[in-house]
Amino acid sequence: MQYHIFSPYRVCPLGAHVDHQHGLVTGFAIDKGVDLCFDICEDSKVILDSETFSGHVEFDIATPTLVKQGDWGDYARGAKFALQKRFKLEKGIKGTIKGSLPVGGLSSSAAVLIAYVMAFAKANNITLAAFEVMKIASEAEREYIGLNNGLLDQACIALGKKNHLLMLDCESNEYRLIPKADNMPPFELGIFFSGLTRSLMSSDYNLRVTECKTAAWIVQAYENVPLKTHDKTFLRDVPESSFKRNRDKMPPRFARRADHFYSEHKRVREGITAWETGNLEWFGSLSKASCESSIHSYECGSPELIAIYEAMLTTDGIYGGRFSGAGFKGACIALVDPAKKEQIEKEIINAFDQIGLNEISTSYGILKKITDEDKISLVIQLK
Length: 383
Fold this sequence. Notes:
This protein is α+β, with helices and mostly antiparallel strands. Helix content is 37%, strand content 21%. It folds into two domains: 2-180 and 369-381, Ribosomal Protein S5, domain 2; 188-365, GHMP kinase, C-terminal domain (Alpha-Beta Plaits). β6 (164-169) and β7 form a beta hairpin. The longest helix has 25 residues, at 252-276.
């Protein structure tokens, strides 16, 4: 008997780079993603192939996993690692995984991890609620893969609902699924790929997380607040008023990281109001302001991504947009007028070609419902 898991990609219009500081984030799950088709094995072997990456992966799900192998199978091993901390795993799977879009900027790693967590859970008769799936997948990426992430990616994938904006408080884990207002103009999500596919582990992603925590530490030290260890220090714990009192004393790079955090919090709150009232122009302008802060305060963005973003600013029919994901590779996303998407695609590709950068590819997605209210429901039995 074969099973199919669809784990969608996600985009974040507002709330970028703040989940790891326990900030407020927003996101959509889209109708493109990762497909994992598998059979449950009678023994403990895991046998995997990929239509995206070369090579064959095999391991035993019942034995401890401690060392990464440096291949695409590490995400399956990471899912096993995190699940084994909670459950006894005895049965493996034999399956094939594939992605529907180029890798980069759409949190494909989180989508893959969630797919593996759910497949291993299914094989071992483990029932998981959506938040459990999120936490296990996030833990796998943080503790096994080595990426100091928050919960944004996993939350969008596990909690997303059609025609709704997810708002998640990464400190309390409280969330809202906010329906699209009836008066909101129609739009689609344009996804413009830069051709960059390097791993976040080789980027400055983890460094930025450390810089944000250091900014919080510096302010707390000036304010004579008892310091916690670095792993338990977050900008969300520092009042903005405390930051403003001490900003000019701080090394500039740390001040800029905090600037982004506090300004992004304000944009998320305003963006929720814009979404609830159907003001797509306002929502889009906030997304553009978010990207400007990513470039100038958070200081991420490759030349390729910045080139795409700048082309988006002057293209008719785009309400707004920004880098997708961590901003060191991958794609830009845009809120686009469906009636103008063909012309938008031509203009973005032309602008990219004119500055002599690598070939760009494009795609469009729609907001996708992937779960019910109570528990994850992505496992579909195939006839």
